[in-house]
Specification:
The chain is built from 10 helices and 18 strands. It is an alpha/beta fold. α1 packs across α10. It is globular, with a radius of gyration of 20 Å. It holds the Pfam family DAO. GO terms for molecular function: oxidoreductase activity. Keywords: Oxidoreductase. InterPro entries: FAD-dep_OxRdtase, FAD/NAD-bd_sf.
């Protein structure tokens, strides 16, 4: 009986941990299987943006719902300060091409009800006087923010455990099991776990796991890298980004800066079994940061890390049931911007399993959008 549960969740990132918590709120105590440590993947390897701006219209409603209904009260609900700050998001532009990108994004978001405006270079520097004179404008979303990814993930983990969820680390899932066409469990290297429903939320590794029951979600892995600096005096609160996504980041509650970006070494790291960051990567990311914030040139980087993002074929996640295998659910392909919507994704998976109905319309995020049109 210890290897059986109504629900087994594969993956202990923010989606897996939040799904476990919300299932427990419905009275369902799941088993969560993790190959390594809790939150080992992208949930502990991102810059913490809780962003609605510059999202695909298909996932924007989930991002807006999370910002309005989940993030503001999450520290109190989980009993831990997740360092959530709703202080806005500036996406910066240095060229007319950058401004065109941001203007199109702003118009798209405004049409869906998100408050987002365009600022001139002067208006941008009024909000943040540390920004370089090279910046000619920006987009501004006042309801965006940031939080601490690791504390958020561990907060859901701790609360779910208190409510009866079982987390088992060191369990590498090798396949899913079906009986009479329905999902019936999960096979690891050491054990077999029986389940009526299974959630696969393992980042890029979800693809191989789902392949074992004939389901393929087209996605690839791409390396993203982040760094954290020494503590600095308070400078600004808002989350930062740029039109071309060269870098993104914020100043933390403790004064250090967390910046992320693509250093361009992904092809090299594709040959590595483990993600890693070298002395080359932070310098590349920092050169990009300094074009926007030259006064940070003397600041010391104290740590850097790298992680894979599970980039789907169309750049938005798959969240919801897999119709061909009743009882199977997937949450993957978040494409490097899953942190802000992960708690809402976990909540909706729990709602579907417990009551058969989600709060939001998830049809645009279903797996079947990749199937041939009839």
């Amino acid at each position: 009986m210890k290897h059986n549960a109504q629900v087994v969740i594969v993956g202990s990132g923010l989606v897996g941990c939040s799904a476990a918590y919300y299932l427990c709120k419905h009275g369902i105590q799941p088993i969560v299987l993790e190959k390594k440590e809790i939150g080992h993947g992208g949930s502990s390897r991102n810059a913490g943006g809780v962003r609605q701006s510059a999202r695909d219209p298909r996932e924007l409603p989930m991002a807006m719902y999370a910002v309005e209904n989940i993030w503001p009260g999450l520290s109190e609900e989980l009993g831990i300060d997740i360092e959530y700050r709703q202080k806005g998001n500036l996406r910066l532009a240095k060229t007319s091409e950058h401004m065109t990108i941001l203007e199109k994004t702003a118009l798209k978001c405004q049409s869906l009800g998100l408050a987002m405006t365009m600022l001139s270079g002067e208006e941008t520097r009024k909000k943040n006087p540390f920004i370089s004179d090279e910046v000619i404008g920006s987009s501004w979303c006042p309801t965006d923010g940031h939080a601490n990814p690791l504390l958020t993930t561990l907060g859901f983990y701790k609360k779910a455990r208190e409510m009866g969820a079982r987390f088992i680390t060191g369990e590498e899932v090798v396949s899913l099991r079906k009986e009479r066409g329905r999902i019936s469990g999960v096979v690891t290297k050491c054990n077999v776990y029986g389940a009526e429903q299974v959630i696969v939320a393992s980042g890029f590794e979800s693809r191989a796991i789902l392949n074992t029951v004939g389901i393929d979600i087209p996605m690839r892995k791409k390396l993203l890298e982040s760094l954290v600096t020494e503590e600095m005096p308070y400078m600004f609160d808002e989350m930062l980004g740029v039109a071309t996504s060269d870098f993104y980041g914020h100043q933390t509650k403790h004064g250090s800066f967390v910046f992320g970006g693509d250093a361009g070494f992904g092809n090299y790291y594709d040959f590595q079994k483990e993600t890693m960051s070298t002395s080359l990567s932070p310098s590349v990311i920092c050169r990009g940061v300094l074009r926007y914030f030259p006064m940070l040139s003397e600041m010391k980087v104290v740590r850097a890390w790298a992680g894979w993002k599970d980039e789907s074929a169309d750049g938005i996640p798959v969240i919801g049931p897999i119709g061909e295998v009743p009882g199977l659910y997937a949450a993957c392909g978040f494409s490097g911007h899953g942190f802000g919507i992960a708690p809402a994704a976990g909540m909706e998976l729990a709602n579907l399993i417990a009551g058969g109905k989600s709060v939001l319309d998830l049809r645009e995020l279903r797996y079947n959008r990749f199937l041939p049109k009839k």
